[in-house]
Design brief:
By secondary structure, the protein is mostly helical. It has 2 domains: about 1-35; about 40-110. The chain starts with a helix and ends with a helix. It is about 85% helix and about 0% strand. The longest helix is centred in the middle third of the chain and has 25 residues, at about 40-65.
Length: about 110
């Protein structure tokens, strides 16, 4: 009985956290925090965490076979290809994303 109550409380906490993280107030506060912080060390580590997030998202998409997540993660990689002067990946990546978003419907069903 106590385990059920604890599990229910945990689910309610998770739902409340998800609502908070997806709210516009939280996004606005986070955006203001990121633009106000000019410390180069902070910017470096925030950029690093963003790259790791993209990498984990891409890996998850590959393992689960989630096509939409794959395209989203790859599209988020493109600015880093440009930033770090990987011109071949940038050139091929933009063509790849464009072609994959315009696949015929019969190919998407497979």
């Amino acid at each position: 009985m106590a385990a059920e109550t604890e599990a229910k409380a945990n689910n309610e906490d998770i739902e409340e956290l998800l609502l908070l993280l997806t709210s516009n107030d939280f996004r606005d506060t986070l955006s203001a925090f990121l633009t106000a912080n000019v410390n180069p060390n902070f910017k470096y580590w925030w950029s690093y965490m963003d790259m790791i997030e993209i990498l984990l998202m891409f890996t998850r998409a590959q393992r689960e076979g989630n096509w939409e997540l794959h395209l989203h993660a790859f599209q988020r990689m493109l600015p880093y290809f440009i930033r770090y002067d990987h011109t071949n990946y940038t050139r091929s990546g933009t063509v790849y994303i464009n072609e994959m978003h315009h696949l015929p419907p019969e190919v998407e069903r497979i």
